[in-house]
Amino acid sequence: MIGLKPMKVWLVVGTQPLYGPEIFAEVQSHSDEIAATLTAAGLAAEVVSRPICTSAEDAAATCAAADADPECGGVILWMHTFSPSKMWIRGLSRLRTPMLHLHTQFHRALPWDAIDMDYMNLHQSAHGDREAGFLHTRLRMGRKVVSGHWSDAGVQARIDAWMRAARAWHDWQGGVVVRFGDNMRQVGVTDGDRVGAEIAFGFTIDTYGVGDLAARMAEVPDRDVDALAEAYSESYDLAPALRPGGDRRDALLDAARQELGMSAFLRDRGAMALSHTFEDLHGLNQLPGLAPQRLMAEGYGFAGEGDWRTAALVRALKVMGHGLTGATSFMEDYTYDLTEGQEAVLGAHMLEVCPSIARDRPRMEVHPLGIGGKSDPVRLVFDARRGAALNASLVDLGGRFRLVVNEVEAIDHPDLPNLPVARTVWRCAPDFATATAAWIHAGGAHHTAFSHDVTTEMLDDFATIAGIEMCRIGAGTELDRFRQDLRVNEVYWHIAKGYAS
């Protein structure tokens, strides 16, 4: 994936000298074995066993080192023995790195006929982790708690979900979202507080004139444009008009130049995501459609109409799903099928849906576009894959942010011979009426990040790391309860923000 930073997770184990220093070597060996096993399991990040913490000085130094290490994207804490929580106050009160509390013990089964007090003193996670949990709660630390034996597949899957969220958060720190032009005029949900976003999330949003992009495109050598245009035929089925000698080959060459110019522009600035708008195309011959589609397939985030927030969210979901199928895209709830009992949503956009979600080989076509006032743009057209997925929307409520998530199922649909854009059709959980009403009550946007890879658990972990509210809409959601939860959340997050300040 383009621009993915290296990341490791530290396993930090707590103990104390009350039972004699001779236990330290054994505790360290257990930490080393757990870290090696988690790494060998193929989780989203390598787990590094750190020197065990036996004092307040150890804990403070370890937490400070985690924050200072650019490759440390998360810390897993485990109290092997009883580790008095006051020794952790100085370190944890300053820790900014995402944290997971693993409530486990080294041995799975108790050796019933051999247990003595030495065994009991060494294996005290049962109350050592409760002591730790009290302090984490007292410090109001956002963290994930995973309970169970460290070798269990279910435990490792929950750790992996958190690692993926931590990796996306790590990616956001110092990230850059490039906007070509401003937001679509008069639209509220795609606008927002860019200073507040940088404070909350750690990435910057930089706006450039579209003329800057046009100038970069002009620097692309013709031979590179020709080579990329030729490469398109290896990946896609080209409409006859776009093939060599076709009467719209010029449009394909221009789209290739857009892609190369955009890619170079983003690469020069170390960007992770981008947006543009059809209302600001000065110096361009066509609205960029193919370029964002292919850039998303490389791992960039994207959203239309200047929607920098959704562009950043698409990037985050791309990073969370790295190493899985890659099926994540910018999406828009476009229109409905309201056949009673079969209600469904048709998701699409003017042009820019990522081919990572395509079911079959995409077709490259050129068609008129009624907005933007430019030449007919080139785009990839395809039906999307089927199966479980989700839509996520990050909205600015004024002073704080909310992540809204709806679990959906992408389904089969009739052919769409007259719809010249990429598309998918899904059913909402728990049902259409509940899901759409809940989404609207929560203020969810019409632009979303859509993924077959990312799970609600990952997004819940991500929201916890980011310190923002997440609203889940899925099986079991009841509208009256959901609305009441939104009201209560308004109070909670107002208070929580007060604590943070």
C-alpha Rg (nearest Å): 25 Å
Q: Mean pLDDT score, rounded?
A: 95
Structural class: alpha/beta
Number of separate strands: 19
Largest sheet: 6 strands, antiparallel, barrel
Q: What overall form do the CA principal axes indicate?
A: elongated
The residue ranges in which pLDDT falls below 50 over 5 or more consecutive positions are none
| Span between termini | 36 Å
Question: Layout of SSEs?
Answer:
Layout: E1 8-14, H1 24-40, E2 46-49, H2 56-68, E3 72-79, H3 89-92, E4 99-103, H4 117-122, H5 125-138, E5 144-147, H6 153-172, E6 176-180, H7 194-201, E7 204-208, H8 210-218, H9 222-235, E8 237-238, H10 249-268, E9 273-276, H11 290-298, E10 301-304, H12 308-320, E11 328-337, E12 344-348, E13 363-366, E14 378-381, E15 387-396, E16 401-410, E17 423-428, H13 432-442, E18 447-451, H14 456-466, E19 469-473, H15 479-500
Parallel strand pairs: 1-2, 1-3, 3-4, 4-5, 6-7, 6-9, 8-13, 9-10, 16-19
Antiparallel strand pairs: 11-12, 11-18, 12-17, 13-14, 15-16, 15-18, 16-17
List keywords for this structure.
single chain, 501 residues, alpha/beta, 5-stranded parallel sheet, 15 helices, 19 strands
Characterization of the model:
This protein is of the alpha/beta class and 501 residues long. The protein is 38% helix and 21% strand. The chain has helices spanning 24-40, 56-68, 89-92, 117-122, 125-138, 153-172, 194-201, 210-218, 222-235, 249-268, 290-298, 308-320, 432-442, 456-466, 479-500; strands spanning 8-14, 46-49, 72-79, 99-103, 144-147, 176-180, 204-208, 237-238, 273-276, 301-304, 328-337, 344-348, 363-366, 378-381, 387-396, 401-410, 423-428, 447-451, 469-473. A six-stranded antiparallel beta barrel has the order 11-12-17-16-15-18. The protein has a five-stranded parallel β-sheet with strand order 2-1-3-4-5, with helices on both faces. It has a four-stranded parallel β-sheet with strand order 7-6-9-10, sandwiched between helices. β1 (8-14), α1 and β2 form a beta-alpha-beta unit. α8 (210-218) packs across α10 (249-268) and α10 (249-268) crosses α11 (290-298). The chain is elongated, with a radius of gyration of 25 Å.
